[in-house]
Amino acid sequence: MIIDNLNNSHKYREVHKGFAEAFDFIKKAVEEKLPVGRYEIDGDRVFSFIQEYTSKLESSFEGHRKYIDIQFIIEGTEVIYACDISTLTVSEEYSAERDVMFLEECEKASMAVLQSGEYGIFFPWDAHKPGLCFGGNPDTVRKIVVKVRTD
User: Fold this and answer.
1) pLDDT tens digits for 131-145?
2) Residue 65: closest CA among 137, 143, 131, 125
């Protein structure tokens, strides 16, 4: 898991071959105020969703095998918990079609509070629980999730 702000995205462009495209898209989406929807960046290798929702009190841990998530907050505040996926029990089996599995609660999770301009990068070994409200106060969150294929 990596937590940082967009001003430092240049430090991570070389971590994975799809990260440069992902960060270029995030910057473009913010500048052009792209609407909610799905965006193809490089076919099924790198693609994105722009979402808008109200943060919630409860969520589930999820994990992916084929994709790395870059979750960037355009507006609002969101809490995301993360922990080592190998320490969790699967509650809903992996769906290859959706590239997601759901997991039981983690006893020792790291908490990140992300605000406008900040992002989290979640690798396949990072179970993560996104979309949560900070301090019990729901907020309208506008977010970009870029999916970067691991291979």
Assistant:
1) 999 999 999 999 999
2) 125
**Torsions phi, psi for 22 (to 5 deg):** -60, -50
Which tokens go with 13?
Answer: 């462009």
- How far is residue 1's CA from residue 83's CA, in Å, rounded to a whole number? 9
Instruction: Give the whole-angstrom CA distance, residue 50 versus residue 87.
Output: 30
Check if the beta carbon of residue 99 is closer than 8 Å to that of residue 66: yes
Q: Which residues pair with 67 in a beta bridge?
A: 149
Global pTM?
A: 0.95
The answer to whether residues 105 and 61 touch, using CB atoms and an 8 Å cutoff, is yes
Which helix (H) or strand (E) segment is 134 a member of? Answer: none
Domains (range + CATH), the chain: 2-149 (2.60.120.370)
